C-alpha cells in the first residue's frame, strides 16, 4: 500500500489525471479550482505532457476537443461561470463521440455568484447544459481520496462510451486537504483507437472527426444514440447507501453535503429517529435503482448547498412521485445536522 | 474531534502551520482535514486555516466548536475567540497582544513571545513554529517529539533543511 500523503483536493485531481495517463490539459484560472492549473503548470512537464493556460475557457475546451480527437486522454477544469463557457465545446464533444474529462469545482450562485463552496450547477451538469440532444455522465466524489479514484473512472467511462464525462467536485473538496493514497501510473497509448484523427495516404480511408453526425451514422443515428444513453443508464448508476433499509426518511446528498448528511444519519439515530442516506455517485445517470432499498421510507429529503433544491425533481422521478420530497438547503454553508433533522421530521407530519 | 484554528497576518505562515499540524495528525493515524481561508483578503489582513482531527470520519472540514486557537495578531483574537468553546485554549503572541487585551474569561490563554523567540534564534520567520511548539507542550493532541517528527518530514519534503526551524519548535515547547 502506498504511503499516505496530505494533499489538497484540487491537486489530487490533477495528479490523479496524470496517473491515469492524461498528458494533455488546457484550461483557464478561476477560483476555487486554480490550484489544478498551478499544479499542472510544473508537474505536467515533469511527466512529459502538454499543459496550456489558454486565453479563455472556450479555447481550453476546444483544445481538449482537438487532443481527444487525436486519441489523447485530455481534460480541462473550471468552476461555475467558466464551466458555463465550456458548454458549446462539450456539446461538440458529445456530437462527435469523443472521450474527454471536464471537471467543475462548484462554487455558489448564478452569474458571478461568489467563490465559496456551493452545489449550484446540478441542473446544468445533469441536463446537458449545451445545445442539442445530449447528456454527459456526471461523477460526484465526496473526499480527496475519492477525487483520485474518480478521475481514473472518468477516463475509463469516457473511452468505454466515447462520450464526455464530467466530474462534479466542489470548493469544499477542492480546497480541503486530506490524507490520500495515490495509485500507480498507467500508460495511455494515443494510437490505440481506430477512430482517432490521423493523416492518410491517397488510397487509405479518411480518418477525420465527423462533426456532422448524420454523415457518420446515416439514418440509424437516432437508434445509435438512444442505445448509447440506454446502456449508460442501465450499466453505470453508482451510489452509496447508508442505513437505508429501515429508514423512515431517506436523505439524498452528494459531494460535500453528503458527508454532513451521513453524520446527520448517525446523530438522528442516536436520538431514535431513523434516518438513512442515498449518496448518488453518478448524478447522471441518476441512481434510480438505489431507491428500491428504501422499503420503510415515508419521505425523502435532499441536502444541498443551493437555494432552489436542484436535485428534488430527480428524487421525485426516481420515487415515481409517491412520496413527499423535502429539501434541506443552505446557500452560504453546508446545512447543520440539526437543521437537516428538523426538515426531515417535518416531512412526517 | 479536535478543532483547531490558526490565524494571523498573511505571510506569517499560518497556513503552513496548519499543514504541519495536519501532517502530525495523519502520522498518528487520525483522520484529518485542513481547510484554508481563500476569500478576497486585504493585503496585510488576516489569513487563517482550519484543522480537524478525529478517530471517526470527519463530515465537514469547517469548524463549529473550536478547541484551540493560535492567534498570531490582535485581529485574529477579535475575529475568532468568539467561536471557541468554553474551556478552549487560545495561544497568542504576547509581543503583539497586550496583557490587558480583552479576552473571554471562560477560556485558557497561553501567552508566548513567539516573534521575540524566533528573532533571538536567528529565524525571524519561524514564529509560527515557536507557536506550534508551545501548542504541543500545552495541549495533549500530540507530544513535542511527534510534532518535531512532523516538522522534519514536512520541510524535508519541500527540500528545506533549516536546523533553526527545529530550534524554534523546541524553544516554543519550553514556554
Fold blueprint:
The complex is a heterodimer of chains A (349) and B (175).
Chain A: E1 5-8, H1 9-19, E2 24-27, H2 34-46, E3 50-53, H3 57-69, E4 74-78, H4 80-85, H5 87-95, E5 100-108, E6 114-117, H6 122-126, E7 137-139, H7 144-161, E8 164-170, H8 171-175, E9 177-180, H9 213-217, H10 221-235, E10 239-242, E11 249-252, H11 255-270, E12 275-280, E13 282-284, E14 299-304, H12 312-318, E15 325-329, H13 337-346
Parallel strand pairs in A: 2-3, 2-4, 4-5, 5-8, 7-8, 11-12, 11-14, 14-15
Antiparallel strand pairs in A: 1-9, 5-6, 7-13, 10-12
Chain B: E1 2-9, H1 14-27, E2 31-36, E3 46-54, E4 66-71, H2 74-80, E5 84-93, E6 108-112, H3 114-120, H4 127-138, H5 144-157, H6 163-173
Parallel strand pairs in B: 1-4, 4-5, 5-6
Antiparallel strand pairs in B: 1-3, 2-3
Helix pairs in contact in B: 1-5, 3-4, 4-6, 5-6
| C-alpha-based Rg of chain B, rounded | 15 Å
Write down the overall mean pLDDT of chain A: 95
Note the total helix count of chain B: 6
Question: What top-tier CATH class of chain B fits best?
Answer: Alpha Beta
Give an overview of the whole structure.
The complex is a heterodimer of chains A (349) and B (175). Chain A has 349 residues and is of the alpha/beta class. Chain A folds into two domains: 5-198 and 223-235, Thiamin diphosphate (ThDP)-binding fold, Pyr/PP domains (Rossmann fold), CATH 3.40.50; 240-346, 3-Layer(aba) Sandwich (Rossmann fold), CATH 3.40.50. Chain A has helices at residues 9-19, 34-46, 57-69, 80-85, 87-95, 122-126, 144-161, 171-175, 213-217, 221-235, 255-270, 312-318, 337-346, and strands at 5-8, 24-27, 50-53, 74-78, 100-108, 114-117, 137-139, 164-170, 177-180, 239-242, 249-252, 275-280, 282-284, 299-304, 325-329. In chain A, the strands form three sheets. In chain A, strands 2, 3, 4, 5, 6, 7, 8 and 13 form an eight-stranded mixed sheet that branches. In chain A, strands 10-12-11-14-15 form a five-stranded mixed sheet, with helices on both faces. By secondary structure, chain B is of the alpha/beta class. Chain B has a single domain (2-173), classed as Pyruvate-ferredoxin Oxidoreductase, domain 3 (3-Layer(aba) Sandwich). Chain B contains six helices and six strands; from the N terminus they run E-H-E-E-E-H-E-E-H-H-H-H. Chain B has a six-stranded mixed sheet, with helices on both faces. The A-B interface holds A 4, 6, 31-32, 115-116, 172, 175-179, 256, 259-260, 262-263, 333-334, 336 and B 19, 22-23, 26, 31-36, 38-40, 57-62, 64.
Amino acid at each position: 500500500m502506498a504511503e499516505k500523503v496530505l494533499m489538497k483536493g484540487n491537486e489530487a485531481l490533477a495528479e490523479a489525471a496524470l496517473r491515469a495517463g492524461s498528458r494533455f490539459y488546457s484550461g483557464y484560472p478561476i477560483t476555487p479550482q486554480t490550484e489544478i492549473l498551478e499544479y499542472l503548470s510544473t508537474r505536467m512537464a515533469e511527466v512529459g505532457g502538454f499543459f496550456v493556460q489558454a486565453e479563455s475557457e472556450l479555447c481550453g475546451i476546444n483544445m481538449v476537443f482537438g487532443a481527444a480527437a487525436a486519441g489523447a486522454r485530455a481534460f480541462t477544469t473550471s468552476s461555475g461561470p467558466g464551466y458555463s463557457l465550456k458548454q458549446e465545446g462539450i456539446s461538440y464533444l458529445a456530437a462527435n463521440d469523443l472521450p474527454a474529462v471536464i471537471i467543475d469545482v462548484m462554487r455558489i450562485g448564478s452569474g458571478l455568484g461568489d467563490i465559496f463552496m456551493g452545489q449550484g450547477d446540478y441542473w446544468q451538469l445533469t441536463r446537458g447544459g449545451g445545445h442539442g440532444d445530449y447528456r454527459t455522465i456526471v461523477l460526484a466524489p465526496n473526499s480527496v481520496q475519492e477525487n483520485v479514484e474518480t478521475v481514473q473512472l472518468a477516463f475509463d467511462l469516457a473511452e468505454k462510451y466515447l462520450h464526455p464525462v464530467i466530474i462534479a467536485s466542489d470548493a469544499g473538496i477542492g480546497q480541503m486537504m486530506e490524507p490520500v493514497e495515490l495509485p500507480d501510473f498507467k500508460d495511455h497509448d494515443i494510437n490505440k483507437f481506430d477512430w482517432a484523427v490521423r493523416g492518410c495516404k491517397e488510397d487509405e480511408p479518411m480518418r477525420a472527426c465527423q462533426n456532422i453526425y448524420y454523415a457518420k451514422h446515416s439514418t440509424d443515428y437516432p437508434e445509435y444514440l438512444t442505445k448509447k444513453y440506454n446502456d449508460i443508464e442501465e450499466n453505470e448508476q453508482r451510489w452509496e447507501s447508508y442505513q437505508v433499509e429501515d429508514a423512515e426518511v431517506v436523505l439524498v446528498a452528494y459531494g460535500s453535503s453528503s458527508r454532513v448528511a451521513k453524520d446527520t444519519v448517525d446523530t438522528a439515530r442516536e436520538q431514535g429517529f431513523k434516518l438513512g442516506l442515498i449518496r448518488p455517485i453518478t448524478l447522471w445517470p441518476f441512481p434510480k435503482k438505489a431507491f428500491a432499498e428504501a422499503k420503510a421510507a415515508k419521505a425523502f429529503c435532499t441536502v444541498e448547498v443551493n437555494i432552489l433544491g436542484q436535485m428534488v425533481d430527480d428524487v421525485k422521478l426516481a420515487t415515481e412521485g409517491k412520496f413527499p420530497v423535502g429539501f434541506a438547503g443552505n446557500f452560504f454553508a453546508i446545512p447543520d445536522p440539526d437543521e437537516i433533522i428538523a426538515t426531515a421530521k417535518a416531512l412526517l407530519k | 474531534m479536535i478543532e483547531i484554528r490558526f490565524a494571523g497576518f498573511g505571510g506569517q505562515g499560518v497556513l503552513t502551520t496548519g499543514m504541519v499540524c495536519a501532517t502530525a495528525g495523519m502520522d498518528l493515524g487520525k483522520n484529518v482535514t485542513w481547510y484554508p481561508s481563500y476569500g478576497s483578503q486585504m493585503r496585510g489582513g488576516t489569513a487563517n486555516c482550519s484543522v480537524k482531527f478525529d478517530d471517526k470520519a470527519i463530515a465537514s472540514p469547517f469548524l463549529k466548536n473550536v478547541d484551540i486557537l493560535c492567534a498570531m495578531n490582535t485581529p485574529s483574537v477579535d475575529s475568532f475567540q468568539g467561536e471557541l468553546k468554553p474551556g478552549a485554549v487560545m495561544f497568542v503572541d504576547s509581543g503583539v497582544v497586550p496583557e490587558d487585551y480583552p479576552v473571554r474569561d471562560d477560556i485558557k490563554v497561553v501567552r508566548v513571545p513567539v516573534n521575540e523567540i524566533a528573532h533571538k534564534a536567528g529565524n525571524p520567520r519561524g514564529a509560527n513554529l515557536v507557536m506550534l511548539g508551545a501548542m504541543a507542550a500545552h495541549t495533549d493532541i500530540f507530544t513535542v517529539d511527534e510534532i518535531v517528527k512532523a516538522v522534519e518530514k514536512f520541510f524535508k519534503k519541500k527540500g528545506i533543511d533549516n536546523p533553526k526551524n527545529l530550534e524554534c519548535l523546541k524553544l516554543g515547547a519550553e514556554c
